[in-house]
């Protein structure tokens, strides 16, 4: 199925259940880096042949309080938006995780709503080199991908924003509160 990034939404609907662990707890803590590592085979399958996928996943990432299934949907939704932005042209998608303490000074630098609570957050970035990213994903909540991603982030009491570089791509930033002590 590789080679057709625009078929990603249909593909994820068919294959996402295969990436779900069979004996998952109904609620608990989730390590975002581990969730992404479990999705790697699906993500590789759905990217165009000319798209290089890179990962920079922090191994000791603090956990977040969440169910794994919506977090998998969030990651795949954002990934497939990046695939569509890159299209069938050669390009790169980088998925990065890290931890950051969101204090007042950090919050002042962000372009997201709501203001994050002062605590440790897990920072997910999905970076693509797609040149035409302006209309592929509606981040204001209009459009399927944008509204689903925004709803998942809101339920987690996190924040999300996008930075764009015309002709160079975009970076989707997602901050989710961790269970780590402040």
Give a structural overview.
- The protein has 182 residues and is α+β, with helices and mostly antiparallel strands.
- It has five helices and seven strands.
- The chain has helices at residues 8-15, 32-46, 68-86, 104-108, 144-155; strands spanning 29-30, 51-56, 64-65, 91-101, 120-128, 159-165, 169-177.
Biggest beta sheet attributes:
5 strands, mixed
The CATH class assignment is Alpha Beta
The H/E string reads HEHEEHEHEHEE
Instruction: Determine the N-to-C terminus distance.
Output: 44 Å
| Residues in β-strands, percent | 25-35%
Quaternary state of this entry equals single chain
Number of contiguous helices: 5
Under CATH, the homologous superfamily reads Histidine kinase-like ATPase, C-terminal domain
CATH architecture classification: 2-Layer Sandwich
Strand neighbour order, sheet with most strands? 2-4-5-7-6
Number of strands: 7
Q: Estimate nothing, just give the exact number of structural domains.
A: 1
Helix content: 25-40%
The computed structural class is alpha+beta
Radius of gyration: 16 Å
Give the overall average pLDDT: 80
Keywords:
182 residues, alpha+beta, 5-stranded mixed beta sheet, two-stranded antiparallel ribbon, 7 strands, globular
Fold blueprint:
Elements lengths: L7 H8 L13 E2 L1 H15 L4 E6 L7 E2 L2 H19 L4 E11 L2 H5 L11 E9 L15 H12 L3 E7 L3 E9 L5
Parallel strand pairs: 2-4
Antiparallel strand pairs: 1-3, 4-5, 5-7, 6-7
Helix pairs in contact: 2-3, 3-5
């Amino acid at each position: 199925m590789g080679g057709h990034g625009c078929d990603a939404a249909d593909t994820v609907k068919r294959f996402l259940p295969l990436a779900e662990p069979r004996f998952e707890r109904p609620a608990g803590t989730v390590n975002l880096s581990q969730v992404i590592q479990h999705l790697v085979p699906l993500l590789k399958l759905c990217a165009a042949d000319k798209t290089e996928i890179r990962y920079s996943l922090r191994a000791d990432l603090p956990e977040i309080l969440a169910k794994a299934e919506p977090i998998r949907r969030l990651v795949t939704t954002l990934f497939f938006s990046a695939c569509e932005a890159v299209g069938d042209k050669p390009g790169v998608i980088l998925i990065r995780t890290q931890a950051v303490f969101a204090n007042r000074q950090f919050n002042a630098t962000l372009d997201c709503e709501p203001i994050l609570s002062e605590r440790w957050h897990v920072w997910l970035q999905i970076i693509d080199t797609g040149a035409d990213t302006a209309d592929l994903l509606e981040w204001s909540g209009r459009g399927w991908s944008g509204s689903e991603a925004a709803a998942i982030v809101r339920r987690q009491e996190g924040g999300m924003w996008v930075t764009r570089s015309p002709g160079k791509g975009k970076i989707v930033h997602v901050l989710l509160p961790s269970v780590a002590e402040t």
